[in-house]
Amino acid sequence: MYYIDNSVRKGYDLLIDTGKNYENDAAFISDTSQNIASMSEELNASTEEISAVVQTIAENMKDTKGNSEDILVGIQETNKAIEQVAVVAQQQTATAERLTQLALSFKI
């Protein structure tokens, strides 16, 4: 009995303590794994949101490029029209000067 109480019992108690420690460690690892899985899901969701925002920005940049090109065409057409107005104004000035010279050549 002495051998069982002193040797076997101590070994048995150590085995029980070791089992409890393993159980506690397993619970800790399980909780940690669940936390990691949860963080991974959150990270994945955030990555998808960022990807959607980047896609929207890319589409907006494409639209902006197209609108900028339209504005450039409009400015070029306006410049051509202004140049034509300037030419016509010069022609009108020249015509007005000739008319003035003709009018002065008549004696009243």
TrEMBL record:
Q: What is the designated name of this protein?
A: Methyl-accepting transducer domain-containing protein
Q: Which domain of life is it from?
A: Bacteria
